[in-house]
Amino acid sequence: MRLRAATVRYLLSALIGGVALLFLTPFVWMVVTSLKPLDQAMSLPPTWIPRAFHATLEGERVEVTQDFQLRQAGVMARFVSGERTGQLVFLADAQRAVVTDEIKVLHRVEPGWWHVTERVAGTGPKRTPRWDIVPADAITSRIHFQWRNYPDALSLLGGGASEAAVSSGRPRLGFWVFFGNSLLVCVLGVVGTVFSNALVAYGFARLHWRGRDAFFAITLATLMVPFPVLMVPLYGVFKQLDWIGTLLPLWVPCFFGSAFNIFLLKQFFQTVPEELSEAARIDGCSEWRIFWRIILPLSKPVLIAAAVFHFLFAWNDFMGPLLYLTRRENFTLALALQSYQSQVGGIQWHYLMAASAVTILPIVILFFLAQKYFIQGIATTGSKN
């Protein structure tokens, strides 16, 4: 019997571990891709471990990208005409290659040789990279994580490092501008969410008044209303208030409560023994003092859970900033990432993954710091002592 129980326990642990690894795979892929060069980020089959390839170009050992393999023999030649010069590949035998004063044969090319291009690092103005066709055994590789992707990606996030931004005279916006906007929206939203929802939830949980249950049912019914239904009316309200283009629409509504958090807090408040409130009333405490001095200190886990829930929502929110923010200096990180995809001339996945990894780092740190109270607040919500 004990052996069977141990076997079941090990199987369940293995199943849970497998599911956890499955959910962790996209995160690992994002981090790994953020440390790759662009060609390896888009390679098929996928490359899990970033590598650096080196070959000799014009007598110098440099880092290169492996573009493609040749399937037939030929020769490598240099074309020189006046001030113009360049390299050519004749997919033919060297003896039959057309050689003139303008074309000089450099070396033979065999099937299976690699076309390689010099990798030019950095995000600023770049020179024309050198290229050649070399044997496969002339290319060496080693594991190499492209840590420079992170500063390069963050410098491109604001568009300040691009030539277009410099020539147009636009202000150079960096990562910390968007980070500050997101942090401001999240912190003010958390303050409004915790205070307003705790106050309303206390009224539903501990005060007795006519129509309380009906109003609570109506409050819960608002959970069924999707945000797209409210977009146009809310936009009209904020436009009349002249809030469009500012951060106000993203955090001021948090001071007016939300059905989910009201329900979460109400269920927890009901687990606090009523005798504590009765004893406080006998001692002459008002309802506000009972709420502030007794209920809130005992409800720290659920308050932290509600704060974490809202912080995660506000940090990852994309639809709200997309609707209400019009000036780039007010963009949050979620919106800046979206515009970043087009400002660099196409999606450069290694930079996008690096910027995304930095973006989610604060919420990962927040969850690990608050997970004790977060899990306690969720686990005890709705239970009775």
The overall strand count is: 8
| Helix-strand sequence | HHEEEEEEEEHHHHHHHHHHHHH
Q: How many distinct folded domains? A: 3
Identify the strand order in the major beta sheet: 7-6-2-1-8
Number of helix segments? Answer: 15
Low-confidence stretches: 160-169
**What is the 3D shape?**
elongated
Superfamily (CATH H level) name of the largest domain:
MetI-like
| Secondary structural class | alpha+beta
Report the span from N to C terminus. Answer: 34 Å
CATH class of the largest domain: Mainly Alpha
Give an account of the 3D structure.
This protein has 385 residues and is α+β, with helices and mostly antiparallel strands. The protein has three domains: 2-34; 48-146, no CATH class; 175-380, Orthogonal Bundle (MetI-like fold), CATH 1.10.3720.10. 55% of the residues lie in helices and 14% in strands. The chain contains 15 helices and eight strands. The strands form two sheets. It has a five-stranded antiparallel sheet with strand order 7-6-2-1-8, with no helix packed on it. Strand 3 (74-81) and strand 4 (84-90) form a beta hairpin. The longest helix is centred in the N-terminal third of the chain and has 33 residues, at 2-34. Mean pLDDT is 82; it is low at 160-169.
